[in-house]
Automatic annotation (TrEMBL):
Cellular compartments per GO CC: cell outer membrane
A single GO molecular function term of this UniProt record: siderophore uptake transmembrane transporter activity
Protein's recorded name: Iron complex outermembrane recepter protein
Alphabetic keyword roster: Cell outer membrane, Ion transport, Iron, Iron transport, Membrane, Receptor, Signal, TonB box, Transmembrane, Transmembrane beta strand, Transport
Organism, as annotated: Glaciecola punicea ACAM 611
Pfam families: Plug, TonB_dep_Rec_b-barrel
InterPro entries referenced in this protein's UniProt entry, alphabetically: Beta-barrel_TonB, Beta-barrel_TonB_sf, Plug_dom, Plug_dom_sf, TonB-dep_rcpt-like, TonB_sidphr_rcpt
Chain ranges of the TonB-dependent receptor-like beta-barrel domain: 199-654
Keyword Ubl conjugation: no
Domain TonB-dependent receptor plug: start-end pairs: 37-133
Membrane disposition: Multi-pass membrane protein
PROSITE patterns assigned to the protein according to its UniProt record, in alphabetical order: TONB_DEPENDENT_REC_3
Length: 685
């Protein structure tokens, strides 16, 4: 990076350097104790705000492309969805350590850094986190700082975005920071458009030398077209001839989200070695998404089957969290002890309506796979030439969920000697859910209370200060109500939570010249609900075993050249409940490789070049449909016009590769964007 200082003073740069060295500098970060990254016995990756800007990253998915052990899933075109070490999740997302489980696309305009942890993380985060979690650390107001930063971008599809970051010094002990953004969303697919905007004021107040308060409010409004991709053919691969066909309705494929998020955090330093944190988080979300999508395809007749639905979710989350971190000695042992408690109260009303086609009196109809599909609004012509009307009139489900979760956890990082540390801890969760199935044809109320203990243990051997060799074991669980609490139907023996166990050994080595190497071997046994191959609207419970290897190399090779190299190898096997094996889990590519290089040509100019490779993987658990492997090349260049302004160009898919990065179901493979560029002006005043 150059020395451009449009939004950072010397003090800010020092803070960012510390955050690069430590995963947790305060209560908002993932590990929650002041533990150096080298002493954390699990794999993790961090993207700082500077890296996000430099690489032109505008979405969570773009970060995942350059992270080992994880890959993107489609998310049905309306939400972030990550496959953490073979486990697909739409709910293991956090903001400042608070659960952010509603399904939507998360913006990055107000984040200081993004932390991606792999392996089960139930001890600090509770249910879920079975293969990993993603935590966004938000920007906070800075006392004694006065700056205004902006970013304006335009891409080759016609989309653009504007961002503002303003810190206002209001005195010796307080400050206000305002982050805001607007984005016009466009891409290469027919009918695709959208917009989103966010507004996030924060305040920081120092009540005394030992006590601080951070307050935050965020408003989110997001609308965009939903595109669930193209079908696979008789060979089980996406049909290239259909790459330009959008299997959707221009008027009834959309996603709308409005959210209000409130956060408050109180931190108090009781003594030099004891610190306490209390946080309150409240958010309400109002989301709707409607979509038609390909559910079947006959390549011989070029006829596609379309299905669809409209889904509404109104949810509010109240999260109260507190913890105490103490550092002390007992005889010759050093301790970093964290004790915490969480309370979560969630109310979630969800309903779904299916369409009814007048020609079939069902929710599915057949169309000739032409561009465009003969579906326009609630009328059209089917593959047989018959005119029809349709509408979302058939109630599929209507559920009203009440959830109370109470948790206690304790963890001790014990320094046995200068070279040996041990981590041991456990978390107790009480998960109490009540679901009213309000469908008039089958009204019923079901409740379920699960009490689960999730242990964690690790050992870190440090032959020297800049090298650590570790081994860890951890467990997590997921109640059968799933990530989105849709229902708890089924026999009693099907209601027990799914449990997940992870074993990992690894090495971390910080080179003297600024390079950092991390390598890890892991094995994860899991049982998780996944989309059924034959009906994307339902779930199957899949038992699987995932083992793998991850490698990360990051840092400065020379004063001018920095590099980030990532490699992961995954081997998965589905374990049939009758004892059979042989199939591979969906969306688990054997190999993922990515590299990003930045080279500082001069004090005012730099270049970036990167590539990401994803091996082929199965789209479904029956292993009848496949995503082909692909390699994508990306590049960037920037020029500092002055100390307060930069011009930056980011190019994605430099070689104009046709590829299919992810899928949701057998006939829903995403068509990736062709060669595209984003021009940005970044500066401050």
């Amino acid at each position: 990076m150059s020395n451009i200082a449009y939004a950072q003073s010397e003090k800010d740069v020092e803070v960012i350097a510390v955050k690069g060295q430590y995963l947790s500098i305060n209560e908002s970060n993932s590990i929650k104790t002041p533990t150096p990254i080298i002493d954390v016995p699990q794999s993790l990756s961090i993207f700082t705000a500077d890296q996000i800007t430099e690489r032109g990253i505008t979405s969570v998915g773009q970060m995942i492309d350059y992270t080992p052990g994880v890959n993107n899933s489609q998310g049905e075109g309306h939400r972030d969805s990550i496959v953490f070490r073979g486990n697909r999740s739409t709910a293991d997302f956090y903001i400042d350590g608070n659960r952010d489980d509603v399904q939507y696309y998360r913006a990055l305009y107000n984040v200081e850094q993004v932390e991606i942890l792999r392996g089960p993380n139930a001890l600090l985060f509770g249910r879920g986190g079975t293969g990993g979690i993603l935590n966004r650390v938000s920007k906070k107001a800075q006392v004694g700082e006065q700056f205004n930063a902006y970013k304006a971008s335009l891409n080759t599809f016609g989309g653009f975005n504007l961002e503002l970051d303003s810190n206002i010094d209001t005195g010796d002990t307080s400050s206000i920071r305002i982050n805001a953004m607007y984005e016009s969303v466009e891409n290469h697919r027919d009918f695709y458009d959208g917009e989103r905007y966010g507004f996030n004021p924060t305040a920081h107040i120092e009540l005394s030398d030992d006590t601080t308060v951070d307050l935050s409010y965020e408003y989110i409004n997001h609308q965009r077209f939903i595109d669930r991709g193209i079908p696979t053919g008789s060979d089980g691969r996406p049909v290239e001839a259909l790459k330009d066909v959008v299997f959707a309705d221009p008027e009834n494929n959309y996603h709308e989200l409005e959210a209000h998020i409130y956060k408050a955090n109180l931190a108090h330093q009781f003594t030099d070695s004891i610190k306490g944190n209390f946080s309150a988080f409240y958010a309400d979300y109002d989301k709707a998404y409607a979509n038609f999508y390909a559910s079947g395809y006959d390549q011989n007749t070029n006829v596609v089957e379309l299905d669809g639905y409209i889904d509404n979710t109104v949810r509010d989350n109240l999260i109260l969290s507190s913890n105490m971190v103490a550092e002390f000695q007992t005889e010759s042992f050093g301790h970093t002890l964290i004790v915490g408690a969480d309370f979560i109260q969630t109310n979630s009303d969800q309903n779904r309506f299916n369409p009814v086609f007048s020609t079939t009196m069902d929710d599915r109809e057949f169309f000739v796979a032409n561009r465009p599909i003969s579906l326009n609004g609630f009328a059209g012509v089917n593959a047989s030439g018959e005119s029809f009307t349709t509408g979302f009139t058939d109630l599929n489900d209507d559920t009203r969920v009440g959830l109370d979760v109470f948790s206690l956890y304790i963890q001790d990082e014990i320094e046995i000697s200068e070279h040996l540390d041990i981590i041991i801890g456990a978390r107790f969760d009480s998960f109490d859910i009540e679901v009213l199935n309000a469908n008039p044809s089958a009204i019923e109320t079901r409740s379920r209370k699960d009490e689960q203990v999730s242990p964690r243990a690790g050992i870190i051997y440090k032959p020297q200060e800049n090298v650590s060799i570790y081994a860890s074991y951890s467990e997590s669980f997921l109640p059968r109500s799933g990530e989105q609490f849709a229902n708890i139907n089924g026999n009693n023996n099907q209601l027990d939570p799914d449990t997940f166990a992870n074993q990992e050994i690894g090495i971390k080595w910080d080179f003297a010249d600024g390079l950092s190497l991390t390598a890890a071997l892991f094995e994860n046994e899991q049982s998780s609900p996944q989309v059924a191959d034959n009906d994307p609207a339902t779930l199957d419970v899949i038992d699987s075993e995932i083992s793998g290897f991850e490698l990360q190399l990051a840092g400065q090779v020379t004063d001018a050249w920095s590099v980030s190299f990532n490699y992961s190898n995954l081997d998965g096997e589905i374990v049939d409940r009758n004892g059979g094996t042989g199939r591979s889990p969906r969306e688990v590519p054997e190999s993922n490789i990515s590299i990003w290089n930045t080279y500082q040509i001069s004090d005012v100019m730099g270049l970036g070049l990167g590539a990401t490779y994803q091996d082929e993987s199965f789209i479904n658990n029956s292993n009848t449909a496949t995503l082909p492997s692909y390699t994508r090349v990306d590049a960037s260049a920037y020029y500092d016009v002055s100390d307060a302004m930069r011009i930056q160009l980011n190019v994605e898919n430099l070689t104009d590769e046709l590829y299919y990065p992810n899928a949701h179901s057998t006939h829903q493979a995403t068509v990736a964007a062709p060669l595209n560029a984003r021009l940005s002006i970044i500066g401050g005043f």
